[in-house]
Amino acid sequence: YINGLGKGLTNALIICEDSTKCKSISPKENTQYVSSTNESGLINCSNTECISIPFTSVSPNSYYINSGNDKSINQLIFCNEYSNIICKYVSSSKINPGYYMNSGKYASFYPLITCNREKCNALKIKDDIFPGFYINAGDDSKPIIICDESCYTTNVLDLQKKGGYKYSNSILGFYYNDTITPTNVTSPTTNLFFNIEINDKNTFPSINSINESKKTIFKVSKYSITRYSVDGILSISSDHYLATNEITLDENSEVYSCIKKSMTCNKITSCITNEFYLDVTSEVGYYCNSNILKPLTNEGYYIDGSRYVGKNTPYLFYCNNEFKCTSVNDTNQYYLNAGINYLSKTQINLSSLEKNNKNLIYCNGKNCNTITSSIGYYIAGVSHVDIYSNRLIYCNDNNFCNAPRPISIVASFINNGIDSHQKPLIHCNINTCITQSVTTGYFISENKNSLIHCEGNSCNEIKATSGYYYYGGSQKSKKYLIKCENEVSIDMVCELIEGEKGFYVSTTSNVLIDCVENKCKSIIAKNGVFRSANTVKLSSNSKRSLSRFVRRANSIYNLIICNQEGCHELSSEELTQVPICNYIDDKCTIVLPSSTSSIYNQITTINAGDYCTNTDHSQIYFATGSISVKQSTRSGETLLDVTSKNCLKVGKQYNSYYYIYGDIIYKLNEHSISQVFSDGYLFINTNTAMLASSDDINSYNNEKTKLYKCNENGCTIVKKPDSTMYITDINKKIIKYDVTTDSYSFMKDITCIYNNNNKCTPNTNMDGQSICITYKGEIVLISDETQSYESGECYKSSNINTNTYNYYKNLYIMNSNSAQLVKDASYYFINSITNTIANYKEFINGKNYSVIMYGCLMSGCNKLEPEEDIYYYSTVGKYLIKYEKGIWTSPQTSGYALVSINPNEVYIYKISVTYDNKVILENKVSDGFYYTIDEEMYECKNQNPVCEKISESGYYFTETNEMYYCLYDSEHIEKTVCYKQTCIPGQYYFIEYRYHRCEKNSYLNPVSPLYCFPKDKVIINFPIMYKDSMPSYIRKAIDNIENNNNSTAIIKSNNINNMNYVPGIFTNCTYNQEDDTTKFDLICISNFVEVKDKKDAKICSIENLGFIHCEEDKDNSEKCNASFAYPLISIHITTYTIIIILVTYLLFQ
């Protein structure tokens, strides 16, 4: 009966077993029932509605599938034609074998009904119904049903043509050849198959074109003759039955590759070795080995090589333990590869290492491939054989995989499948297992004493320790975390628990689990106080115990303290030391316990930035000023003597404020006070404790707004820069500081995607702007000509603590959130790989090929190529380097060098090399000659902006008081070579109008009062290259010696390191301090002869520091020689002359 309550009901039909027992039911779509009323013959139902079909609308002699409760007994409904059409049930015993024409609502799609002993089924055209001839079991007057695109009945009993049929005595025969001898099948379980060609297009359904006159497979059964096709292969024996034995493929074999959709089958004479083929009709699977198809004898899954789609093999087939094989169409995930048990002849002859080790099949819905397993879990694929989706395959390191195992618990497993990089975890929830992408966190594993830890897309199983872990799974309905603790029976048990409001100390240092809001999340906590989600029970004697339980009236919350070393819950004693405050309208006073014992630390004052709590620690108060003890009167009344607000009731309403006390920035949130340690720049108005508004540039330029730079060590105030600077702040705004106007301005917020290869893609045209921002808020330097969604060269720094130097039209010093224009006069040597200041070791280790040199002036920086012979000084790196013959070198000795400290200045500087090879740039030199560490002689003049190399040979007295003799090649073929001139330590030299004393290492220092004694006799040498500057009396003495004594006063040497000079003996040294000059009195010049009379001639002897007796030279009467005749000693004058000459020679070599 139709339920009369109305349309749209779930239970639209009423079924009665008898007159006293009825119930309403929910019918299925497209179902028919015999009506129990007299008004109509049928009831036709959808999911929510049933309608009566009047007998006037019911077709005569029509059949329907019965959907009633008695359908196992009465499978069909038949409506016959009398004076009125009567619909009644047809019992199973009266159903004839064959096919019935369906008259149901969807008969055009399901035109035939076929029945067995259990039920009747409607057959779908093209899927279940092939073109052909069928015996009509429902109408003897039209015993044949012909089907193609649709089905219809006919009374033609004999279509005597090749491809036609003959129906006689309830037997359907097939004309398969030109002899017009029909064949037939008398057993309902036997079929015959013929591969014939039909030329008459009007003979067989679906063969309508003469162009289709080709061989086609036909199936002959007891109740039908149809054009036949399947997806896969079809093996036919010579007697037209199905072949199920081993087959050798050649021209004589009858094996066909068929495509169901096109109803075509092509004969095959070869197969691909090591592939597997399914004959779905005979339910036999085959293994191909050298064109021999061998029936499969191993249970399991195989890739179906008979059903290629393009170059892919998306289908499997399964063979059971009786080796009956069926197709598996909807393939996904992993299957054990039964094909691993089969080896070709070639593989059998190879070593075991070369044999088949691909023990798994992976399918993605579009293709299936065999793969070699590794240690881990795989999701088992579902099929008509294995219908459960909660099964996993585990493979060990011996290339062995266990049979799929159902997972009946909620747990996670590390995914070893092909998608493990994107979805590293398998999550099983009793009914199903799926791979999933994860965030950082921990997951419950099947092993109770271990957890799975995931960070990004990398997951590892870890051994659990007692404590709390952040849960990385879904928290949509409830907030969760993982708790692990020791139990008596086993070492450790980890379980998923629901999070209470508050914080938990995790097993990772400085990481808390925040369960304050509707989800638990992991946070990094450096310095701060947090209200624990755990409570501490107060025992009867008021001592505090650390046992944790659900909060009751006699429990208080614990507190968590975090510092740089980690986080911990307070101990019982520590908790008693937390000051308790009374709070009224942001005014707090400290309350001391009524009974003070030694365990309490009586804190009477707390300062701004500290905290106190209420009595059960459920509420934290933040001190914005000094908080003192609450005062009491003698009568016991309490007085709140706080006149100004000094505290805040900590809560999420203050989350957007930044409170600065000293050099610490505090953040308040629900149940927590923490210091700011996250990387970034903050513009904070110190009056309002608010960040500058991202919509109002005036808030950035407010005089009370200060800029802070924060990192893992805290925050520091940033002084206003001395050059143009770009900043990305916590608001993710690009802010420009203009040093000329001393103001901030907003830049266009262009977002760019940064790739690891220094390429960026902006979301709009840069249009002259060279700064963009990543979605993380990082600042990026990019070409101002880059177009939207095009890739361009760009640079950024990895973090806020690392400075990099990047160049685009100018040089910028950058960190992750700022870029400042380099504006000074100096050089920068940048490692082109790291974009950081090149380390001195990078030059000496031969890695200088990666160094780029930038020269900067106040107007900007440019990339430069180094010049040889010049040392470049890095003010940032504090090193001095020179480029020569493709190699950067650094000075190894102290001295003087030609140094450039910026592109506008190249000059001689004095340098010092320390014991650890560090170079100190001491000072810029004054006028004079300087011999450099590169063995070059330079002359510096203040009026000349540069020092010049000498351009002629000669003697050069340097500002270091050294004398050099230099040979200059005017043709520039040879390098100028200079030789340091030696001097005799202790003797004096007259150089450039001044007396100098020879010291160790031939330094000629100006004579100072230290070496000027009036009574001393000293030797003073007069280098002949300074003859023009000698005192006139010295020049005259030299001339007199040559003229009067026929001799010379000059000491000459053949050694290029020795000067030619005239020595003399002097005394009576006087030093004039006002003009820093020295004077001597001459005693005599070497070889000067003094004659009082012919018998008393004396000659000047350097060795004797004065005159000695002189005798006439026998060979030259005009010449006087020094005498060896000392008092009371007579020596021949010639011998004396020889000795004195020899001594003189030896002294000056």
From TrEMBL:
It comes from the Eukaryota. This is Scaffoldin. Keywords: Membrane, Transmembrane, Transmembrane helix. The chain crosses the membrane at residues 1124-1148. The keyword Membrane applies.
